[in-house]
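Dear colleague,

Thank you for sharing your sequence with our group. We've completed the structure prediction you requested, and as agreed, I am returning the results in plain text so they can be pasted directly into your records. Please verify that the sequence below matches your submission; if there's any discrepancy, let me know and we will rerun it promptly.
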Amino acid sequence: MKQCIIIMIVGVFFSISIQAQKVAMFETTFYFEDAVGNMDSIRVGHDTAANYSYNPEFGESFINTPFDSVFEVRASHRENFPGISPNTKPEDFFLSKKIIGYSEVGPHPVHGCISGDPIIFTIYAKYPPVTVTWDSMEFIQSYCLVGSYLSDNFLSETLNEWWTFPELVEEYTCLADTGNKLIEFEGKWDFPYTLFPYPVSGSNGIDTIHSVMYTPMSFYQFTPCQSWWVGTKNPEIHFINLWCPNPVQGDLRRIDQNSGDWQVVSLLGQVILEGHGSTISMAGLPTGSYVVVTLLENGIGIQKIQKVE
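Please find the predicted structure tokens below.
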């Protein structure tokens, strides 16, 4: 009888814990497989109620044990990662099998979707290379995530338009364009922050952990994944002065007087305004910097605009 009571109590607490765990506004799973068929997975997502460091209410659970001696993948918030966050030591930073990133801008006012902060996958693989797979439809169908990518390096943290360097073309993969990426460790890890020492079982205590950054984005000039706008892959991007005056208080006017589709995008990637025509009313927007994206016959026009009082 006492045993039955104990089982019932445990069951009640287990049920409460399951019910108490929140589901983020966006969640998806990345799957990892090494060269000999060992598999692992990471659940990631974004929510306005999440923070930069630790979200147990969304299922994050701190792992501070050594990595598996053959193959294991964990994930980290960008802000906790060694090198990006200078006060964090590798042995102290937060790793989990699930990470829910913070979303500052909230749901898109028209599409209702959400984006968020970058998340870093940390990988130990005795038998590389490692293949990463995901459901590309999760990103194709989400206006807020269609510009997302996986990067083998963290140059996106330091350089604008980093993808224009020819040697980096193979270093990123657009998540809406395909559903897999091959990560080859050899010769790919000479960039900042991608390597760090961490305890691994059976490796004399310490071994090298590799990392890959997942960067969620909709569209603005800092993503190389822009095929969603015109329905074709890799449209030509033109950084041109198409609208005036700049700075602007009221209306923007298109210099060539042509009408076309346009969007006003915040520097966080949130679409603030969109429409069609040769004028844009900026009067109701707060002061600050915006990006005007214009659909052209030969690609996409990009212009940074300063809104003033």
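Summary note from our side: The first strand starts at residue 26 and ends at 33.

Kind regards,
the structure core
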